[in-house]
Amino acid sequence: MSDAFQVQIMRLPGNEDIPLPQKMSELASGFDLYAAIGEPLTLAPGDRALVPTGFALAMPGALEAQIRPRSGLAFKHGITTLNSPGTIDADYRGEVKVLLINHGREPFVVQRKERIAQMVFQLVPSIRLLEVSSLDDTERGAGGFGHTGTK
Ligand SMILES: O=c1ccn([C@H]2C[C@H](O)[C@@H](COP(=O)(O)OP(=O)(O)OP(=O)(O)O)O2)c(=O)[nH]1
Fold first, then answer.
1. Do residues 34 and 19 lie in contact, with contact meaning Cβ atoms separated by under 8 Å?
2. Is Iron-sulfur one of the keywords UniProt gives this record (predicted)?
3. Is the pLDDT of residue 73 over 80?
4. Is the predicted ipTM greater than 0.95, yes or no?
5. Which pLDDT belongs to residue 151?
6. Greatest distance between any 2 Cα atoms in the chain
7. DSSP string of 36-68?
8. Which of 9, 55, 68, 87 to mutate to test the pocket of ligand 1 (most atoms within 8 A of CB)?
9. 14 CA to middle of ligand 1, Å?
10. Total-model pTM
11. CA-CA distances (angstroms) from residue 24 to 29, 78, 115, 120?
């Protein structure tokens, strides 16, 4: 793992007992994120909440982190991330937060230290936008949004 990117993680005060993000298996893509809330948080059907994780990051400029849902919570309870995938910019130094929404039919209670989402790091290519007055032709052209049919 010597070629691994180094990402700095800083626990924010009051979260000493909250586990740092963790891969639950060796080759998992995502680090599971734990809810750093004081009291249990009830999400009624349709409710959303910004849930703190208790840490902040500093990562190399070539990376971003994506906050993605956990499929088990989505399947069993309709709990997902509203802005999926959430984007953590390399220059963001605030607390990483998870925007949860309850798409289920029952209230869902988030407990302190519950694993609520996962964080996947991605390479972000360096891009320079170049303004032009015309674009090259392609077979697809401007076709989209199901123009080849949906069945
Ligand atoms: O799920 C998320 C999404 C974002 N953020 C933080 C990190 C990110 O770098 C910052 C800004 O996010 P984004 O660019 O998506 O928000 P915006 O609505 O465009 O706000 P801003 O004007 O602050 O960029 O908020 C989170 O902690 N969790």
1. yes
2. no
3. yes
4. yes
5. 84
6. 57
7. --SS-EEE-TT-EEEEE-SEEEE--TTEEEEEE
8. 87
9. 23
10. 0.95
11. 9, 22, 11, 13
